[in-house]
Specification:
The protein is α+β, with helices and mostly antiparallel strands. It has one domain: Beta Complex (Metal Binding Protein, Guanine Nucleotide Exchange Factor, Chain A). The chain has a 6-stranded antiparallel beta sheet with strand order 3-4-8-7-6-5. A hairpin with a 5-residue loop joins strand 6 and strand 7. Helix 1 packs antiparallel against helix 3. The chain is globular, with a radius of gyration of 19 Å. Bound molecules: zinc ion. The site of zinc ion (ZN) has 8 residues, from loops.
Length: 213
């Protein structure tokens, strides 16, 4: 009985579950509210075995992952108040509160310079070069790689779906997410799906954090 009840509760959510590599438009969303219920595959088996506990556990593990990334220490340790003083409200929402800009609205979505650098809009650390950028059609700036060490990943396996958040390695500012294996003809087959709001482009050469000179 309980199992049936849960099935009927869960099944309306199933159409939202789309394998990442099959639906570039869906999967390319930097995982906002639409990705919060994609637990369909595991649900029937799990429910039969242990009732509701794993389901609740999934929410706790989600919180734990979020917390762990938030408490990681970064060289730039400004407080929220200090960030509010230098960021506009939209930058604060996205960089410091892990928000997402609407698809297709970002300043750098269709921005394809031949050279230049995309710096962190919070702390100005160089993150991506123009050479890393490619046209993904997803509605957000897409990069197949970053400047070495500039971007830190936080993997979250909640709901049985791997999501990898990317943040600025210098200030921890939220950039977006990385998706792998989508079949883009790039050297890495990775797509760093980044909010334009998190970036500030400059034509200047990168500050070369990797430089050995
Ligand atoms: Zn930063």
């Amino acid at each position: 009985m309980r199992s049936h009840a849960y099935r009927s509760l869960i099944s309306p959510l199933r159409p939202q579950v789309t394998p990442l590599r099959l639906a570039s438009t869906l999967s390319s969303r930097p995982l906002s509210s639409s990705a919060k219920h994609p637990r369909s595959k595991a649900v029937p088996k799990t429910i039969r075995a242990v009732s509701t506990i794993p389901f609740i556990g999934a929410f706790f593990s989600s919180n734990r992952n979020t917390d762990s990334s938030a408490t990681m220490s970064y060289p730039d340790q400004r407080s929220d108040d200090q960030w509010r003083a230098v960021l506009n409200p939209e930058q604060f929402r996205i960089l410091r509160e892990k928000g997402t800009e609407r698809a297709g609205t970002g300043e750098y979505d269709a921005h394809h310079p031949s050279k230049g650098v995309y710096n962190c809009a919070g702390c100005d650390a160089p993150l991506y070069t123009a050479d890393h950028k490619f046209k993904s059609g997803c509605g957000w700036p897409a990069y197949f790689d970053s400047i070495p060490g500039a971007v830190t990943r936080h993997v979250d396996n909640t709901f049985g779906m791997k999501r990898t958040e990317i943040v600025c390695s210098n200030c921890g500012g939220h950039l977006g997410h990385v998706f792998e294996g989508e079949g883009y003809p790039t050297p890495t087959d990775e797509r760093h799906c980044v909010n334009s709001v998190s970036l500030r482009f400059t034509e200047d050469a990168p500050k070369e954090p990797k430089s050995k000179a």
